[in-house]
Design brief:
Number of helices: 1
Largest sheet: 8 strands, antiparallel
CATH topology of the largest domain: Thrombin, subunit H
Order of helices and strands: EEEEEEEEEEEEEEEEEEEHEEEEEEEEEE
Radius of gyration: 21 Å
Structural class: mainly beta
CATH class of the largest domain: Mainly Beta
Amino acid sequence: MRTTLTKNFAAAVPFIAFALACGCTAASPTSSIEYDPEPSSTTPESAPIVNGSKATSHSEAVLIDMYEGGQLSSYCSGSVIAPRVVLTAGHCVHGISQWKIKAPFANGQTAQSSKGLVYDWNTDSETVDPNLHDLGLIILDTPITLSQYPTLATKAVSNGTKGIAIGRINNGSLSTTALYMSQAISLSSGQSIGYPYDYQGSDIIQSGDSGGPVELTGSAPYTIVAVNSGGGGGAVFARVDLLSSWIQSTIQANGGPGSSGGGTGGAGGSAGSGGSGGSAPPSTTCTGGTQETEANDSYTAADKLTKLACGGLASTSDEDWFTWTASSKGISYDLVLSSSSDFELQMWKKVNGSFYAVTNTTPTEFTYTTSGAATYYLVVFSPTGKTGSYTLNLVK
């Protein structure tokens, strides 16, 4: 589902297009008491990383930024299937005039495009049209080179086949530096729910995941069987085998396939390899503090933060997670990130099993008095993919 900057969509099987989540545009709080959603009607965010991990082994996965009239309008995900062809969702192509592509796990290669193609997707509807194929192709101005390209399914998979979905959502909000893969899910025909051109599966895709590949479990070269299309009480994934001839002819007309591109999809094996733990961080002196321990690249592997922590981001897609707790209401705290780069913080509080975003005081600081007992999760990241060292200091 694509994330737009101007709309919020909601329907039975919608393109989830929530407004950008916290951290993209920091807002100043109006009170010294932290934002407290528990007694209000505010909806909690998704848990950070929905049973997924960084898709570092998937060099084909790409971030897609979409432009209309020269202005950034929305975001999607996709995959490089040939040196000059990117596969994505039809609703990530229709009505868009320009795209900027980044392959974070292929040495950060980038490309631009002003040419996109759809097979029959011609609607601006806010829901998945079951009578159309939600597939699109973006033709790159310059190639993105991979050591091997994914294969594409040319026949349907059997009900119960295991697959993984890849997209750019991290901790319920948009990532501008990395993509993430789900745990293995079961795919089955969408015919029974009225979506004959799709597979159906668990509702694991979120805003901004649209167009990301759904791949059979196994090892590279991966086989793409569908792309993320829509979700809400379940998810639908647009099948690629139904448009195999159209996709292959488009590839041939635009520079041809790369190595391993365009083959037949086979049966799934074991779960695809996920994001590996971060590389060793850049060395830094941590006098009086604790050095971060890898791999702390997800909230489920967060380091405990007691006071001072030191660490480093070692790659363009690296991020470090920490956690701390407040035992009661009325605890004043000041959490400050220091670095020589553009590193920023995002933080969530977990209360009664739900996650709530805490508004930044600045992009590198949270200064509040707690509104109740809670466990906090925070992430250090670079919005531009820079590397370097940092210190994180929590004073209570």
